[in-house]
Amino acid sequence: MSDSPETTKVALVSGGTRGIGRGVVLRLAADGYDVSFCYASNADAAAELEKEVLALGRRVFSQQADVSDMAAVRSWVSGTEEALGPIDAAVTSAGITRDNPLLLMKDEDWQRVIQVNLDGVYNVCRTVIYEMMKRKSGSIVNLSSVAGVYGNATQTNYSASKAGIIGFTKSLAKEVGRYGIRANVVAPGFIDTDMTSALNEKVIEQAKNQIPLRRVGTVDEVADLVSYLVADRASYITGAVLQIDGGIHL
Ligand code: NAP
């Protein structure tokens, strides 16, 4: 039997329909959270995921919302609060790539990646933070990337957005720690999702050769780390950048 709404925590996940976000939705539901997620366009995937969360005995809310659009994010967050109650945890996983060497970078690809990846994190965090501050509790996990830590050729736009997320989250952690709110970054290396399957086989093989564990990571491995970080088990961790990358940084 599921817990009463008063005792169940509520988690918000951006970009929940696929990849890491989807894994996080299912993991947090299995952990006992009611879960709300947004997505860009994949309504069928959203409906399927809702069913899976309900099958785990948790309540679920989903809405199409482009995270780069503040009005859409506000609508998603207020819909979540009406449907599920106040938000205890927010995970930002919505993200895109538009790779090219800088010389060939289109202005719109620079702008779109910054808008979705970095503005999107701002929009979600800006929208949830006031209620968390009022309740003097909350936990935020933002998905960055090893590209945001070390840089990556052909990813100036993506790396800039992901480095921005790190600076943003560390600053936020300093601002809101006194309100009992934690903010952390998870920075994955190569994880097996649609985002990486779009890369050609040669690039993936080259990457594997640079990874001491000699394989790409799984969505479940990342979801496990997010599950740990959002929960009270991680109550003394804030402002951290946790890499999950098979040792690619070594
Ligand atoms: P993915 O498989 O491509 O899934 C992206 C998800 O984000 C989808 O649910 C998509 O919704 C949603 N989304 C995309 N643009 C959106 C927008 N404007 N507004 C709302 N939702 C949007 O990506 P992933 O590989 O799981 O990556 C998740 C996060 O981890 C990203 O921030 C990525 O940068 C980061 N990351 C991934 C890797 C990796 O190796 N996969 C490595 C490092 C960091 P639709 O289904 O509707 O399109």
From TrEMBL:
Enzyme class per UniProt: oxidoreductase
InterPro entries associated with the record: 3oxo_ACP_reduc, KR_dom, NAD(P)-bd_dom_sf, Sc_DH/Rdtase_CS, SDR, SDR_fam
Catalytic activity entry: a (3R)-hydroxyacyl-[ACP] + NADP(+) = a 3-oxoacyl-[ACP] + NADPH + H(+)
Keyword Cytoplasm on entry: no
Transmembrane segments: none
Pathway(s) the chain acts in: Lipid metabolism; fatty acid biosynthesis
Residue span, Ketoreductase domain: 9-193
Any Pfam family hit: adh_short_C2
E.C. number: 1.1.1.100
Keywords: Fatty acid biosynthesis, Fatty acid metabolism, Lipid biosynthesis, Lipid metabolism, NADP, Oxidoreductase
GO MF annotation, one: 3-oxoacyl-[acyl-carrier-protein] reductase (NADPH) activity
SUPFAM superfamilies: NAD(P)-binding Rossmann-fold domains
Kinase keyword on record: no
PANTHER family tied to this protein: 3-OXOACYL-(ACYL-CARRIER-PROTEIN) REDUCTASE (PTHR42879), 3-OXOACYL-[ACYL-CARRIER-PROTEIN] REDUCTASE FABG (PTHR42879:SF2)
Function field: Catalyzes the NADPH-dependent reduction of beta-ketoacyl-ACP substrates to beta-hydroxyacyl-ACP products, the first reductive step in the elongation cycle of fatty acid biosynthesis.
Subunit (UniProt): Homotetramer.
Family per record: Belongs to the short-chain dehydrogenases/reductases (SDR) family.
NCBIfam families (alphabetical): 3oxo_ACP_reduc, PRK12826.1-2
Protein name, as recorded: 3-oxoacyl-[acyl-carrier-protein] reductase
Name of the gene: fabG
